[in-house]
Every structure is written in C-alpha cells, then in structure tokens.
C-alpha cells in the first residue's frame, strides 16, 4: 500500500489518541485474537477480568465473536480518534450513531466464513439494537480494563507523539517514521506500508492523515471517507505500561542517586512532562518535581518549554551515566 502526500497534504497531517482503540485492542489481546508479545505479563494478570466481564456482560462475548485474525473486522466498532484530546465518551457517541443498516452489513461481512459464534452471541448480534449492545460491551471493557490505568497509558501515548512530532518538524518524514513499524517506510513523497496482498495506492488529496499511537494494538491502517486516513502503530516504550523501568540486577545508579531519582532518569530516555512521569512512575508531583530539579542542576536532563508545558529529556551526560 502506498499513501501519497502532495505538498498541501502536509498541513492536514496530525496525531490522535483513541481510548476506544485501546479498549478494543486490549479486549482482543485478552481474548487471544492477537499475540501479546511484550504485553504478556499484563495479559496474564488481567485475563481473569475478561472471564468476569463475559459473565456479567454477555455482550462482551458477542463482541469477542467478531474478532478475526487476517480477516475483515467491523469498521463501525472503531469510529476513529477525534484528535490528541479525544475522550472515550466522544468515540462511544460516534459508535452509537452508526445507522443500523450499516452495522448489520458490516457484521454480516465480519461473520462471513467465520466459525459460528455461540447461540447467545448470535442472538445479540442479530438483535435490532445490536449497535447499542456492542457499545455497552466496549463501555464495560473501558471501565474495567483501561480507565483505571488511563493516566499511565495516556502518558505513554503522549510521549510518543511528542517524540515523533518533534522529529517530523526537525528532520522530516523519514525521521518521523523511523522505527514506527518494520512495514512502514518513507520514499519519494509517499508512505509505504507493506501489507500482505495489498498493492493499493491512495492519494490523501486534502482528506487528512492521522497517526494514532497505541499501547495494546499493532499496525492498523483504516480509510473510511470522509474521515482522514488513519495509521495506528505500537507506541514507543509500551513496557512502561507495566510500571516504572526496572533497574538492572547489578544496579549501581540507584545507590548513587537514590532509587527514585534513578527511576526518573531511566524514564527520561524519551522526552516527557512532569505529569507524564507522575503517571508512569506512580510518584507524587512534588517528588518528581524535586528529582527533576536536582537532575537538571547536575546537567543530566534538559527542559524545554512549549506553551504551558515543560518537556524533560536526558542529556548526553545523563545517557553516559545510564550506560
């Protein structure tokens, strides 16, 4: 697949955060529809919650019956982010606004050639109010699995956006797409995305292009006019969703700086704000601010103000100390 960008299209490129995408992909991981990879510890700790959800909310089982690997998955269940500040409620409202005939056609296509779901799931998927019932399933998944961890998860996504937007502004598209995904590259004014059996060529032509980092998902490319092209990709540092960076077994930095200060320095191998560090490390705002002040005075981190936000990052000296 090629997504071609003309000069004017650069102004339409943006980044978004989708709580709905995180909920959907987390449920897929717990249901075994996608490989867990580095998130295996998270999946193992929470697999029991999916069983509880299935018992309490039968619609969750019906939703899981639609999860397919390498096949069509109903588009209306992922309405797309509204931007970097979008909320789950906004995306849920967009899903609930799906016309019943659109949902019915997509569910039928989703189930075509698919091993038949259980009888209770078939009844739910055939119900006239199926859109509201599947929205209820996603809402239950959000409240149980994602919302309690959302500050930490959002911090990971925001840090990725800061990193890639900065590289795009400073060095161009090739740098912004570097290590986004092995299948995503930039050449000759086009974003090349290698998908099995997909040789389609698209031109943005003012429709917009949105990149959406995700913790629980992987490479997902969606184009559903009039919405922008959307490229979802695994965010950098997803292991941070499991807690603070673990010190090495032969840690000498902790005894030198103190465990908390060393954790802040380790967490700053990518740029982050104070609030993002608070969410990731589980420390108080005052504690993180105090550690940052000492690290900055020692020349181990830099700070850059953009509007009301201050972003910190490790200096070369800090990286040498970490090494």
Description:
This protein is an alpha/beta fold and 323 residues long. It has three domains: 2-16 and 159-238, no CATH class; 19-151, no CATH class; 244-322, Winged helix-like DNA-binding domain superfamily/Winged helix DNA-binding domain (Arc Repressor Mutant, subunit A). The chain contains 14 helices and eleven strands. The chain has helices spanning 19-30, 40-56, 58-64, 88-96, 100-111, 119-126, 130-146, 150-171, 173-177, 253-257, 259-267, 274-281, 285-297, 316-322, and strands spanning 2-4, 13-15, 184-187, 190-193, 201-203, 209-214, 220-222, 229-234, 272-273, 301-306, 309-314. It has a four-stranded mixed beta sheet. The longest helix has 22 residues, at 150-171. The mean pLDDT is 87.
Ends apart, CA distance between termini: 40 Å
Classify the secondary structure makeup into a structural class.
alpha/beta
**Share of residues in strands:** 5-15%
Q: What is the number of helical segments per DSSP (H or I, 4+ residues)? A: 14
Regarding quaternary structure, what we see is single chain
Neighbour order of strands in the largest sheet: 3-4-1-5
Order of helices and strands: EEHHHHHHHHHEEEEEEHHEHHEEH
**C-alpha Rg, in Å?**
21 Å
Count of the separate structural domains: 3
Coarse shape = globular
Q: Segments where pLDDT lies below 50 for 5+ residues? A: none
In this structure, how is the largest beta sheet organized? 4 strands, mixed
- What's the number of extended β-strand segments? 11
- The proportion of residues forming helix, as a percent range, comes to 40-55%
């Amino acid at each position: 697949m090629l997504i071609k960008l003309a000069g004017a299209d650069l102004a339409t490129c943006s980044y978004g955060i989708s709580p709905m995408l995180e909920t959907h992909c987390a449920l897929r991981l717990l249901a075994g529809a996608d490989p867990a990879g580095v998130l295996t510890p998270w999946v193992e700790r929470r697999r029991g919650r999916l069983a509880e959800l299935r018992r309490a909310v039968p619609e969750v089982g019906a939703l899981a019956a639609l999860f397919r690997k390498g096949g069509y998955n109903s588009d209306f269940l992922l309405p797309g982010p509204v931007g970097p500040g979008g909320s789950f409620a906004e995306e849920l409202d967009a899903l609930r606004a799906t016309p019943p005939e659109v949902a019915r056609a997509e569910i039928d296509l989703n189930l075509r050639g698919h091993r038949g779901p259980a009888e209770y799931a078939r009844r739910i998927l055939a119900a006239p109010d199926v859109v509201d019932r599947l929205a209820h399933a996603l809402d239950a998944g959000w409240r149980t699995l994602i919302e309690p961890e959302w500050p930490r998860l959002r911090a990971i996504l925001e840090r990725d956006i800061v990193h890639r937007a900065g590289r795009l502004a400073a060095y161009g598209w090739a740098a912004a797409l570097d290590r986004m995904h092995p299948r995503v590259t930039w050449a000759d004014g086009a974003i090349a995305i290698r998908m099995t059996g997909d040789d389609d060529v698209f031109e943005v032509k003012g429709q917009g292009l949105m990149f959406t980092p995700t913790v629980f998902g992987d490479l997902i490319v969606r184009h559903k006019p009039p919405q922008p092209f959307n490229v979802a990709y695994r965010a950098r540092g997803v292991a941070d969703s499991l807690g603070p960076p673990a010190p090495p077994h032969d840690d000498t930095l902790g005894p030198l700086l103190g465990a908390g200060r060393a954790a802040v320095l380790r967490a700053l191998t990518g740029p982050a704000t104070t609030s993002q560090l608070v969410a990731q490390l589980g420390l108080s705002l005052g504690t993180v601010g105090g550690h940052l002040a000492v690290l900055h005075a020692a020349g181990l981190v830099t700070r850059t103000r953009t509007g009301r936000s201050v972003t910190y990052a490790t200096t070369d000296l800090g990286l040498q100390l970490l090494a």
